[in-house]
From TrEMBL:
GO molecular function, one term: magnesium ion binding
InterPro entries found in the cross-reference section: Alkaline_phosphatase_core_sf (IPR017850), DeoB (IPR010045), Metalloenzyme (IPR006124), Phosphopentomutase_DeoB_cap_sf (IPR024052)
Pfam family, one: Metalloenzyme
Protein name per the record: Phosphopentomutase
Protein EC: 5.4.2.7
UniProt entry tagged with the keyword Metal-binding: yes
Subcellular location: Cytoplasm
GO process terms (BP): 2-deoxyribose 1-phosphate catabolic process; 5-phosphoribose 1-diphosphate biosynthetic process; metabolic compound salvage; nucleotide metabolic process
Job description of the protein: Isomerase that catalyzes the conversion of deoxy-ribose 1-phosphate (dRib-1-P) and ribose 1-phosphate (Rib-1-P) to deoxy-ribose 5-phosphate (dRib-5-P) and ribose 5-phosphate (Rib-5-P), respectively.
Residues binding Mn(2+) 2, per UniProt: D289, H294, H342
Residues holding Mn(2+) 1: D11, D330, H331
Pathway in which the depicted protein is active: Carbohydrate degradation; 2-deoxy-D-ribose 1-phosphate degradation; D-glyceraldehyde 3-phosphate and acetaldehyde from 2-deoxy-alpha-D-ribose 1-phosphate: step 1/2
């Protein structure tokens, strides 16, 4: 078996519309493809490329990330089973818990009783209450909210309730308490919301309002046992980096790290790689999503991917023979698409260990849960029969730990 497995979720980096994209209004979405078209050939992801990223789409190459003759890793893509296209759905499914019941969404804003309850608890007026881009919320309502000491509640196409407030007017501790209260209101049907998100910001006027790294997600607690909990129960260490702790409400995690940015997250990966442990380190890098995908910024998202790729080189160099690396995404968020919401896309799957003598193609996975099933098989831990492990498909090239 591999002693340590490192999973990195490059949040929102899809690789083309999923077969059911039309159900979500996402036909034609293609996060990586549209970034490549934006940059043309002034774009390079050499480390992801040598792992096999470009080989996933040989018939429809990603501009700047073309196929290579001999990838060093295994490559393929995964399709989501869950009924949503949010981070929570994607991550839960990866860990053996597909979301089968549609969570609540609010295209016309939240019910009056929810807004009134939040306002009464906070002793502050509530502004907005409709689906909006977070940056547009600040531009249109930020100054008014600051003037009246209010908070801004808004949503998107996903099952989220987001609360924005200025850090100097609504201190972080107070904002988090308001979000915790909001969480208590929407845990059951007909109002069952996936995530409450605290969105603190700073600045003096609309032109310079900036969201800070003090975002915090208050997710619905997993409605079942996750593969992370199964690993933990078997005595393996489970480490969460980035918003992993928030997405799983802290369950199944022994050690957690909050990321200030993607690069801060890569620092945490470097730190964890220097530790001697047996188990799983699960990382989410959210800047691709929050900073660029939702803002429909292909230039920024492409640059963030190049920055990640450069740091990935250090990770590859630090890996030991009995380490396994799995890189994937939780959904798409096409910066070249309409609107500002997540996009229903297939996601890349890259698998690598220094002990592999060669790479190769993996069949398209029909559920993200194949990720967790592979983890469980590697550590010889029983699961719930959700997902199909791909460990045997790389078995001929893998390192066997004889200790």
């Amino acid at each position: 078996m591999y002693k340590r497995v490192f999973g990195i979720v490059i949040d929102s980096v899809g690789i083309g519309a999923a077969p059911d994209a039309a159900k979500y209004g996402d036909e034609g979405s293609d996060t990586l493809g549209h970034i490549g078209k934006f940059y043309q050939h002034d774009w390079a992801l050499p480390n992801l490329q040598k792992l096999g990223l470009g080989n996933i789409r040989k018939e429809q190459p990603i501009v700047g990330v073309e196929p290579v003759e001999q990838p060093i890793g295994y490559y393929g893509k995964m399709r989501e089973q869950s009924v949503g296209k949010d981070s929570m759905d994607g991550h839960w499914e990866m860990m053996g818990l597909p979301v089968k019941v549609a969570l609540s969404t609010y295209p016309n804003g939240f019910p009056k009783e929810i807004i009134d309850a939040i306002s009464d608890f906070a002793h502050r007026p509530v502004l907005v209450n409709k689906p909006m881009s977070g940056t547009e919320v600040l531009k249109e309502y930020g100054e008014e909210a600051n003037a009246v000491g209010g908070i801004m509640v808004y949503t998107s196409g996903d099952s989220v309730l987001q609360i924005a407030a200025h850090e100097e007017i609504v201190p972080l501790e107070e904002l988090y308490k308001i979000c915790e209260f909001a969480r208590s209101l929407v845990n059951d049907a007909p109002n069952m919301v996936g995530r409450i998100i605290a969105r603190p910001f700073i600045g003096t006027k609309a032109e310079n309002f900036t969201r800070t790294a003090n975002r915090h997600d208050f997710a619905l607690k997993p409605m079942g046992t996750t593969d992370m909990e199964r690993l933990q129960a078997s005595g393996r260490k489970v480490i969460g980096i980035g918003k992993i702790n928030d997405i799983f409400s802290g369950t199944g995690i022994d050690e957690g790290y909050h990321n200030e940015s993607n690069m801060d997250g890569m620092d945490h990966i470097d730190h964890v790689m220097a530790e001697d442990f047996e188990g799983f380190a699960f990382t989410n890098l959210v800047d691709f999503d929050t900073m660029y995908g939702h803002r429909r910024d292909p230039k920024g998202m492409g640059q963030a991917l190049m920055d990640f790729d450069a740091r990935l080189g250090k990770v590859l160099e630090a890996m030991q023979d009995d380490d396994l690396l799995i890189i994937t995404a939780d959904h798409g968020n096409d910066p070249g698409f309409t609107g500002s919401d997540h996009t229903r896309e297939e996601v890349p799957l890259l698998v690598y260990s220094p002990s592999m003598q060669a790479g190769g193609a993996l069949p398209t996975r029909t559920t993200f849960a194949d990720f967790g099933a592979t983890l469980l098989e590697n550590f010889n831990v029983a699961g719930a029969g959700v997902g199909t492990s791909f460990l045997s498909e790389i078995k001929e090239q893998r390192y066997v730990n004889t200790h």
